[in-house]
Amino acid sequence: MHADRIQDSPRPATGSEKAGPAWSREEFEAKLRERGRSYHIHHPFNVMLNSGRATPEQIRGWVANRFYYQIAIPIKDAAVLSNCPDQQVRRGWVQRILDHDGFELGGIKDEGGVEAWLRLAEAVGLTREEVRDLRHVVPAVRFAVDAYVNFARRAPWQEAVCSSLTELFAPEIHKQRLATWPEHYAWIEPAGLGYFRNRVSQARRDVEQGLAITLDHFDTRALQERALEILQFKLDILWAMNDAMATRYGVNGA
Ligand SMILES: O=C(O)c1cc(C(=O)O)c2c(n1)C(=O)C(=O)c1cc(C(=O)O)[nH]c1-2
After folding, report:
1. Half-sphere exposure at residue 151, Cβ-oriented, CA atoms within 13 angstroms
2. Which atom of ligand 1 is the closest one to the Cα of 202?
3. How many CB atoms sit inside 10 A of residue 19's CB?
4. 40, 146, 206, 226: least CB-packed within 10 angstroms?
């Protein structure tokens, strides 16, 4: 992981000649998207889950461990808000907290993503209690997730925004689950997959905002390279979570 380098390195010089000229917005966006090659969609543990080779125990292990990520996301987003002096950005960003924590306002009620994840947990045969008390969360998953929250607390808010850009690649992984799980895991109640359905459109909207901020802020070559490093740090967090789950629950061969 690159956490130490990201958190403790000095800020890069802006406009440094050594770094070369800034990439155009299109080139920069393409470089960010290229990093999708190290998204956890390619991790052997995830490939196992989505190709139908996982046992119920492995699926339960994944759902229970991922819950720790789910509850960390709104805390991470609150950290971004707390560091951000731009009202317009906060107005957009606050939606992410509502997406996960839910809300009840003017007669409209949305239970939110954390609740949807608990429904997924029940659909795969876990109790809400054993998920909420985090008894199944393996230490390295906890450390990886905590590294993300701590980064968002300590980094300039634009860097924390940039670190959310793994969401560029998330609609694909959610769509993959929706396409493969009902066929491979008929024992899972389909209503339990609602979380993945909701996230396809929510992630697209998140990415629109996160990408616009990143393309605007990281506008020298040195800053653009730093943005790539931050994105890689976050990709590594997701990869490390999968490594930890693979170690605990095993990976079945093809
Ligand atoms: O299931 C996944 O593979 C996956 C990955 C990611 C991601 O790329 O960080 C997120 C989500 N799901 C997700 O559901 C979600 O709400 C989310 C928020 C964020 C973020 O960094 O702010 N990432 C993700």
Report:
1. 28
2. 16
3. 17
4. 146
In the beta sheet, which residues pair with residue 109?
104
Q: Which of 60, 21, 9 is nearest to 221 (CA)?
A: 21
3-state SS assignment for residue 108: strand
Q: Report whether pLDDT(240) > 50.
A: yes
Question: How far are the Cα atoms of 61, 150, 156 from residue 70, in angstroms, in the given order?
Answer: 14, 15, 23
Instruction: List CB contacts of 52: < 8 A, sequence separation 6 or more.
Output: 180, 183, 184, 185
CB 35 within 8 A of CB 239: no
The type of residue at 242 is N
**Is this prediction's ipTM beyond 0.90?**
yes
Question: Measured in angstroms, how far is the CA atom of residue 69 from the centroid of ligand 1?
Answer: 8
Residue pLDDT, tens place only, 198-215: 999 998 999 999 999 999
Indicate whether 139 pLDDT > 90: yes
Instruction: State how far the Cα of 237 lies from the Cα of 46, in Å rounded to an integer.
Output: 14
Residue 14 pLDDT: 53
173 lines ligand 1 (CB under 6 A): yes
- Give the atom of ligand 1 at the shortest distance from the alpha carbon of 167: 8
Q: Measured between alpha carbons, how far is 33 from 69 in angstroms, rounded to an integer?
A: 23
